[in-house]
Structure formats: structure tokens, C-alpha cells
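Postdoc handover notes: sequence design on the structure in folder B. Input C-alpha cells:
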């Protein structure tokens, strides 16, 4: 069970605890196997060999060449490097040409969205493609946005707030036909969906270990051989000269084990998560007739552990605080926007008004979440939502 003390944990999209097997694999590289992998002596070469094993585990999971996987500090670095690296490579290859152009979707994680806006301020072109009411990108809209100077398309594989699984394979076919590299942020999808970089037609792909019971502070960027990219972190020859800095050895080892285990158990874990997610949705519908579903109505088109709903007439953050007092952890959206007073840009892009966006909650279950826990959550919501609405109506 994904728990902290006695907490009912329904925020697996934000992070997950390290598995025992992952921690056991990491510990030796925090103690006895402490050699710097750039060193030529045996102690260093032992850690280098272990990193190579982890790189192979990541590569096999996404059906990539081992040499095309670069370890990073996490998905934010991977996303930033993909966008800035490809666009700057294009600009430096022909400084006299029109400024390179980037296409992203309106529902990208801020690691992509903010990086794209920063690049726009540097003079690059930017098109943000809209989504429909369920949060899906239209591949035809991506096709229509491509220009002669388009250097990169970036569309996430599955949305972190609504769980909407994007038509990346179709966008990948368009990108190949038009000769434009495609990047996808696959952070939420890894461990839940089958990922094959060739079948998806992607040229760059971002991953983060802590979303599937690996350690925080480590991720990876897949870059297909031949894709021009300017590497951003300089100062050393690590990662084949692509990312300077001493490797996070223990984190990388844990990443490899975590993604390998998640992939092996993917189908069973997805089915278990979907079963309890569906139970939660059915209980909420039966209990709150006015509850609103955010995202795909066809649950086969959303991540198996994701449920995003709105309770009209209440503030999502108020409900979250009350749930926390009752030992229940959930989210109002992306974990990376905690403390941000702005409504969800994802829900707003889908056409939700500000009131609906602010009344929304994201529940992301784990395969270990039980029906008994869901019953306790629903009972708690009955009390919280009713009390909140009464206060809002001036009744006590």
C-alpha cells in the first residue's frame, strides 16, 4: 500500500515511495561501491559497469538503443534539454535562416510550457496547439501548425492532471512525413503504458524515476541517433560528453531497477489500479449527483490510475486541506504547482471556467489502494463537501 504512516495515499501521480527492491539495489552504491565512474581504477569501473546495466534496463523498457539514453536529474531537466537543445542546434546550424519554430500542446507540463515560453523570449517561434473538451490534441492541428522553420514538436504521451492519453503515434507519423523531430514527455505514462519509441515515432522522450517507485532526483532523456541537439550541461565528459557532472550513481541504479520492475508488472498493476479507480468513480457518481468528470469519458483513453473530478460550489484546495486533516492525501492538479494561486492551465485549456477549475480534485490511486480505503474517502468527502457548501451558503 502506498502509505505514509496511516495516510490513505491517492496522489501516486505526484510521487511514489521507493520499493524495497529498489532501495536494496541502491544501498551498496551509497556505501562500499563509492567509486567515481569516471575513474580508471577498479572501484570506479565497478560503478561505471552498474550504470551501464541501468542504462540497458531503461533502454529495453522503451525499445531504444542503449547509447541513446542519457541520464539526467529528472524530467524537468530532460524536457528543458530536449526543447532548448534541439532549437539551439537548428539555430546554430544556420544563423541566417528564420528563427526555428517550436510546437507544443496547451496541456503540457510546466517543464515544457515554461521552457517553451522562455525560448520564445529568446526569439524562437512558438505555436501552442489547443485541445478539445476532453483534453486531447488533434493531430490535424499539429500538422497545420508546421512551418518550414519548425524544428521540434513536443506533445506529452499522457497528461499528468486528467490522464488523457494523447495520439502520439499518429502525431509521430505526421512528424516523420514532414521531417520534424518529435519529443514526448512520457513521465506519467511509464509504468502504466507500453512505450516503444519506434512504434510511437518519437525522436526524444523524457522519463522520471520517482513516478514508479524509484528515487527522486534522477531521470532520463532518450535522443534518437542523428537528431541534432546542443547539450546544455557542460564541464565534463560524463554521459558520453552529453551531460557534464558526476553521475548520481545510486539514483541511476535505483532508476534502472524501478523501471524494469514497473515494466514487468505493468499489465497487472494497471488492471488493479483501473479496478479501484472505477470503483471510486462509481461511488462518487452515486453519492454526488452533480459531480463532474474532467478528461476522457472513455476510461480506456486515460491512465488507469487517474480520476479528475469537480465538485461544484466548493474550492478544491479547501477540500484537500480537510482531507489531509482526515489522513487522506490527494491533489488539486500537478504537484509542481502547489502554492500557485492560478487555476489549472490544463482544465482551462479544455474549456473549463475558472470556478470549475478551482473546484477540481485529482485522485491518482495505486494498485494497492483498497475498496475499504475508497469507502473511507467517499465518507469523508460527504462530510467535507456538505459542510463546505453550507458555509458557502451562509449556513452553519
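Designed sequence:
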Amino acid at each position: 500500500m502506498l502509505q505514509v504512516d496511516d495516510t490513505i495515499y491517492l496522489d501516486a501521480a505526484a510521487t511514489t515511495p521507493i520499493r524495497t527492491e529498489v532501495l536494496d539495489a541502491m544501498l551498496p552504491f551509497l556505501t562500499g561501491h563509492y567509486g567515481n565512474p569516471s575513474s580508471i581504477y577498479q572501484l570506479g569501473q565497478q560503478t561505471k559497469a552498474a550504470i551501464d546495466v541501468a542504462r540497458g534496463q531503461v533502454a529495453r523498457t522503451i525499445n531504444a538503443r542503449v547509447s541513446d539514453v542519457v541520464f539526467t536529474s529528472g524530467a524537468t531537466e530532460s524536457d528543458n534539454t530536449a526543447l532548448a537543445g534541439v532549437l539551439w542546434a537548428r539555430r546554430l546550424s544556420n544563423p541566417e535562416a528564420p528563427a526555428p519554430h517550436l510546437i507544443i500542446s496547451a496541456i503540457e507540463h510546466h517543464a515544457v510550457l515554461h521552457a517553451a515560453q522562455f525560448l520564445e523570449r529568446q526569439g524562437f517561434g512558438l505555436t501552442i496547439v489547443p485541445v478539445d473538451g476532453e483534453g486531447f490534441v488533434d493531430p490535424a492541428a499539429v500538422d497545420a501548425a508546421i512551418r518550414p522553420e519548425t524544428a521540434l514538436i513536443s506533445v506529452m504521451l499522457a497528461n499528468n492532471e486528467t490522464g488523457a492519453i494523447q495520439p502520439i503515434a499518429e502525431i509521430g507519423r505526421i512528424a516523420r512525413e514532414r521531417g520534424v523531430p518529435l519529443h514526448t514527455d512520457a513521465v506519467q505514462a511509464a509504468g502504466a503504458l507500453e512505450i516503444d519509441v519506434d512504434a510511437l515515432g518519437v525522436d526524444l522522450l523524457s522519463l522520471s524515476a520517482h513516478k514508479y517507485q524509484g528515487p527522486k532526483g534522477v531521470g532520463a532523456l532518450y535522443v534518437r541517433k542523428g537528431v541534432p541537439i546542443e547539450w546544455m550541461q557542460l564541464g565534463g565528459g560524463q554521459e558520453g560528453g552529453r551531460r557534464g557532472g558526476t553521475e548520481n550513481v545510486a539514483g541511476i541504479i535505483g532508476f534502472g531497477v524501478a523501471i524494469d520492475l514497473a515494466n514487468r508488472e505493468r499489465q497487472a498493476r494497471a488492471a488493479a489500479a483501473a479496478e479501484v479507480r472505477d470503483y471510486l468513480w462509481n461511488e462518487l457518481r452515486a453519492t454526488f449527483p452533480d459531480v463532474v468528470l474532467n478528461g476522457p469519458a472513455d476510461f480506456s483513453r486515460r491512465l488507469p490510475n487517474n480520476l479528475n473530478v469537480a465538485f461544484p460550489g466548493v474550492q478544491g484546495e479547501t477540500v484537500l486541506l480537510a482531507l489531509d486533516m482526515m489522513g487522506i492525501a490527494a491533489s488539486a492538479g500537478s504537484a509542481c504547482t502547489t502554492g500557485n494561486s492560478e487555476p489549472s492551465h490544463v482544465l482551462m485549456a479544455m474549456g473549463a471556467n475558472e470556478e470549475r477549475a478551482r473546484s477540481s480534485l485529482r485522485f491518482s490511486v495505486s494498485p494497492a489502494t483498497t475498496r475499504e480505503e475508497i469507502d473511507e474517502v467517499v465518507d469523508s468527502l460527504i462530510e467535507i463537501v456538505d459542510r463546505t457548501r453550507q458555509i458557502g451558503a451562509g449556513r452553519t
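Context for whoever picks this up: The chain has 14 helices and twelve strands. Don't rerun without checking with the PI first.
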